């Protein structure tokens, strides 16, 4: 396999992955779904550390016992995804518990803190998401993109040079 073929394959793979990611992000935007990386095993075995949870907005009146919801912390420092074990409609509160936890969460959450109900989850995608979010990985991807595009330009220029100098003869 020559260098031109390797660069072409790498460029095709990189382009395909980029197209898939853009399509998936557009799907999430259209469906108003927010992704969250799971950072603990509190919901295992239903949802494991490193999975990605996708939550969609929900009207609190549609919530039911047993629903898995993503909720913002009181202080706004982050969020968690747990199962609803009690709903207090009078005070607009939900009580949650991680499936693996022995007891329910210490404090209830207000309806206003609910980000959404889990629509689906994808195994290990949360770990990938966390890696993709790191600065070192983003720099690596940017460098790879520049190298692939540069290699493509050089190969095209060499091909034109061998075929007649790459100048117009009109």
Summarize the structure in words.
By secondary structure, the protein is an alpha+beta fold. The protein has a domain at 34-123: Umud Fragment, subunit A (Ribbon), CATH 2.10.109. Helix content is 38%, strand content 24%. It has 3 helices and 7 strands. Strand 3 and strand 4 form a beta hairpin. The mean pLDDT is 85.
Calculate the terminal CA-CA distance, rounded to whole Å: 36 Å
Q: Which percent range describes the beta-strand content?
A: 15-25%
What does the overall shape look like? elongated
CATH superfamily membership of the domain at 34-123, which one?
A: Umud Fragment, subunit A
The proportion of residues forming helix, as a percent range, comes to 25-40%
Q: What is the total tally of β strands? A: 7
Overview features:
170 residues; Umud Fragment, subunit A; seven-stranded antiparallel beta sheet; elongated
Question: In a few lines, what is going on in this structure?
Answer:
The chain has helices spanning 3-30, 125-132, 135-162; strands at residues 33-37, 52-56, 68-72, 79-88, 93-97, 109-110, 114-122. By secondary structure, it is an alpha+beta fold.
Spell out the blueprint of helices and strands.
Elements: H1 3-30, E1 33-37, E2 52-56, E3 68-72, E4 79-88, E5 93-97, E6 109-110, E7 114-122, H2 125-132, H3 135-162
Antiparallel strand pairs: 1-2, 2-7, 3-4, 3-7, 4-5, 5-6
Helix pairs in contact: 1-3
